Amino acid sequence: MKVGVIGGGIGGLYVTLKIIKYSDVELFEEHNVVGYPKHCTGLISEKVLNLIGNGIRDYVLNRFNMYTLIHDLRPNKHLELKFSSYVYLIDRPKVEERLSDEVQDRGGVIHLGMKVTSVDPSEALIIVNDSLRRNYDIVVNAEGAKAHISRTYNLCSEVNYLLGLQAVIKCRNELDHPYVIFGSDVSREFFSWLVPIDDDHVIAGLADSSRDLYPKLMYVVRKYLIRRYWSGPTSFKEFFGGLIPMSTPCRQVVERLVGVGDAVSMTKPLSGGGIYAIAHQARMLEESFRGTSTIDEIIRRYERRVLKLITNLKLQHILRKLLTMKFNSMSDFVGYVIDSGVNSITLADYDTYVVDVSRINDIFKLIKMLLLSII
Ligand SMILES: Cc1cc2nc3c(=O)[nH]c(=O)nc-3n(C[C@H](O)[C@H](O)[C@H](O)COP(=O)(O)OP(=O)(O)OC[C@H]3O[C@@H](n4cnc5c(N)ncnc54)[C@H](O)[C@@H]3O)c2cc1C
Question: Given the CA of residue 43, which atom of ligand 1 is nearest to it?
Fold first, then answer.
């Protein structure tokens, strides 16, 4: 079986690694390095860390078992979001370098500086740099959020995006877990975040649909990081960011073209995280290749397997929609929860937002609060 993979981000690289045992894989990355441009914070659940495997444990920068949620208009209150298992901060560029090395050690071929310019999904044919034709049995599209190929070849119709901007700030870090800041002055559609990397560095980030991210990010950094948690010298080491797809998942397969990750809008709509879906899509593709000999069978098996993941993400979209219909925005919802006296919620699962049933107090308070909001 011959597979062509478009994109050397975490999606393309990890899928390649998972299916390399069962096929000859060639990956095409338009830049001269993998994982470029850097855009991700790198927060993943323990389950995803375990799924991706041992190699990436070397690139864990920090881990947390709670977040503090703040609302900009409620300065003296907050909500603790606790997790029954750790959330890990990974060094994304290093993870991609590691995956790339592993792919090549196992005989996979990575072509850098080669852009896939068109695809024929019925023939699994790709054209690279407008001239080089390559035929495969299956093509995996992991081109990321811009989804140009996905939109051209009917995996996705229209995709909505948020813009995310982040900065690594050097300061003496006083935070021991992430702070998530809500409020319409911060972000109308999403939120801002402060994530401690180590004793001397913090990531400050913000996502929204508006374009004026920079002044808003500076507002958060000044108000929360500098005034509230650290008044000493700070310096900005780097800025980075990118697009976060916010549409419901696209079609996963068109003929012999299979979409993975941001290319088919597989992000969690409540947090913007995309590595969760990629880890599962790669595992499902591997399972579909294992013991299967025909292209059709692999594709049908994959389509069946991925349905559960799609349903899960679609439910999260419905939840987000219901909350924004009822409360106007996620910020107003968080403000409402804070106002109603719930000060702590424990989640059993960071990816599917399941409330930990052993924390019965949280649940009673939460249910009461939601019932009151409906009445
Ligand atoms: C601000 C921000 C913060 C985030 N934080 C988190 C987080 O904490 N946790 C989390 O799980 N997710 C997070 N995400 C989302 C996460 O970064 C993405 O879901 C993930 O990077 C998607 O991986 P991917 O491989 O699908 O796409 P990408 O990582 O974008 O990789 C796509 C690759 O394809 C290449 N490419 C594109 N077109 C072509 C072509 N035609 N030919 C050849 N190569 C091509 C690109 O150069 C790129 O290298 C965040 C995103 C943003 C923007």
Answer: 8
Look at residues 329, 332, 308 and name the one whose alpha carbon lies nearest to residue 320.
Answer: 329
pLDDT of residue 365: 66
Q: Which residue type sits at 5?
A: V
Pull the structure tokens for residue 277: 């879906």
Question: Helices 92-105 and 10-19 sit at what angle, rounded to 10 degrees?
Answer: 30
Amino acid at 137: D
CA separation for the pair 204, 228 (Å, rounded):
14
Task: Please give the mean pLDDT across all residues of the chain.
Answer: 93
Give me the helix-helix angle, 360-374 and 295-327, nearest 10°: 60
Query: What structural domains and CATH numbers belong to the chain?
Result: 2-37+91-158+247-321 (3.50.50.60), 161-245 (3.30.9.10)
How distant, in Å, are the alpha carbons of 225, 245, 269 from that of 169? Answer: 10, 26, 27
Whole-model pTM over 0.70: yes
**Could you tell me if the CB of 204 is within 6 A of ligand 1?**
no
Q: Which long-range contacts (CB under 8 A, 24 or more apart) does 292-296 make?
A: 295/1, 295/124, 295/137, 295/138, 295/256
| CA of 35, closest atom in ligand 1 | 49
> pLDDT-derived band of residue 372, with 50, 70 and 90 as boundaries?
low
Residue identifier of the C-alpha nearest atom 41 of ligand 1? 116
